[in-house]
Design brief:
The chain is mostly helical. 41% of the residues lie in helices and 9% in strands. A two-stranded antiparallel ribbon has the order 1-2. The chain is globular, with a radius of gyration of 15 Å.
């Protein structure tokens, strides 16, 4: 999921449960602009960092422990990443989202769009 600076959802891509999130990051960031991209350690990859630099933004992503050379990040800006977590928290207030009642991803995606619209109206 991609969220804006206010923690409102912008884009979603539904993947299999075992798929890593970093694989969908380029598709989520396509066509986006901004000063910085905030993400957690799961998104620490050289390819993603190069994509973010190509956008003209700063990558605020802490380095993974397995990285040989630690890349510093802005800890003050990283504190704002909790807004995406708050966005997920707002979505989880909808029981249908939290328990994933829908078997088909198309139905689940439809409900996510409805719930996201309701979050935007707050």
């Amino acid at each position: 999921m991609l969220a804006d600076a206010l923690g409102r959802p912008l884009r979603f891509i539904i993947t299999a449960g075992q798929a890593g999130d970093v694989t969908q990051a380029p598709a989520l960031l396509r066509g986006q602009t901004g000063e910085a991209v905030l993400a957690d350690k799961a998104y620490d990859s050289n390819a993603l960092r190069m994509l973010i630099a190509g956008m003209g933004a700063t990558a605020v992503v802490p380095s993974n422990r397995t990285r040989k050379v630690i890349i510093p990040h802005d800890a003050t800006a990283y504190r704002q990443r909790n807004r995406i977590e708050r966005c997920f928290c707002h979505l989880k207030h909808f029981r249908r989202f939290a328990t994933r009642y829908d078997r088909r991803s198309a139905h689940f995606a439809g409900f996510i769009h409805l719930a996201a619209a309701m979050i935007w109206l707050r």
